[in-house]
Specification:
alpha+beta; 2 domains; about 20% helix; ARB_07466-like_C; ARB-07466-like C-terminal domain-containing protein
């Protein structure tokens, strides 16, 4: 049994995977898998390594000096912890955006969510206010720009409707500049919501 197995692994290492086997996601839109494959360190002994099982190479085809470097599986936690915005009353896409922004930008220390407002976005759990530290400084302006760019790149994942920052109104289809939209101390993010959570949701990076 070990002879054919050794041949299978030796030959199989040269075969390219099917193009349809895995579809990679954009850089910021990581698919919610929690397993990744990493290369194992070369074996230090004369044993044949198959997966995580070491087999004495004297009994394997090719003799004691044929060592095959295998791959091993390592669990990777892709879940997002609770973000800065209070999540009570937020809809699922808004929660995802809050958690993702919190994880991606440790410089942010406050994100507002549900609050009374004349418009429906905040009261209905559809909007976030990402507060920018020192918003009038070059560093603060650059940070706000980065957050707008991040949310826009992930528009489909977050269900982005719009962002407002420093008088500009951003949508997935473009930006309207200088329209008197305000928001000079925080980035306003509006999502399409996706419904209210039922309690068993898991949010992934």
């Amino acid at each position: 049994m070990l002879g054919p197995a050794a041949v299978f692994f030796a030959v199989g290492a040269e075969v390219s995977p099917s193009k349809d086997a895995v579809k990679s996601a954009p850089v910021d839109e990581v698919a919610p898998w929690n397993v990744q494959i990493v290369a194992a360190a070369p074996a230090a002994s004369s044993d044949l390594v198959i997966g995580q099982v070491a087999v004495n190479s004297d009994n394997a085809a090719g003799g004691p000096n044929n060592i095959i470097a295998a791959s091993r599986y390592r669990a990777v936690d892709r879940t997002l912890p609770v973000g800065l915005a209070p999540e009570r009353g937020l809809q699922v896409k808004t929660i995802l955006a809050s958690r993702a922004i919190t994880a991606a930008f440790p410089e942010i220390h406050s994100i507002g969510g549900v609050r009374p407002d004349a418009l429906r976005w905040h009261p209905n759990g559809l909007a976030l206010d990402v507060m920018i530290p020192n918003p009038d400084t070059p560093e603060g302006i650059a940070l706000g720009n980065e957050i707008v760019d991040y949310v826009t790149r992930n528009a489909s994942r977050f269900g982005m409707q719009d962002c407002i920052w420093r008088g500009n109104y951003y949508t997935p289809n473009g930006v309207q500049r200088g329209g008197g939209y305000g928001h000079y101390d925080h980035v306003h993010v509006t999502t399409t919501g996706g419904g209210y959570p039922v309690g068993d949701e898991t949010y992934f990076r």
